[in-house]
Amino acid sequence: MKIKYISSLIAFWTTIIMFTLLTTISYFSSISIILWIILAIVNFCVVFFFVRFWLQKEFYDKIRTIYKNIYNFKINKKDLKQNINSSNIGIKEVSDEVDHWMEDSSKRIDHMLALEKYRKEYIGNVSHELKTPIFTIQGYISTLLDGAMDDKELMKKYLERTNVSIDRMIAIVQDLDTITQLELGEVKLDLTKFDMVLLTEEIAESFYLKAKSKDLIIHIVNDGPVMVEADKNRIRQVLINLIDNAIKYSKQDSKEIRIKFFDMVDQYLIEVSDKGIGIDEKDIPRIFERFYRTDKARNPQYGGTGLGLAIVKHIIQAHDQTINVRSKLGEGTVFGFTLKKAV
Question: Which of 92, 130, 218, 289 is most exposed, with minimal Cβ within 10 Å?
Answer without folding.
Answer: 92
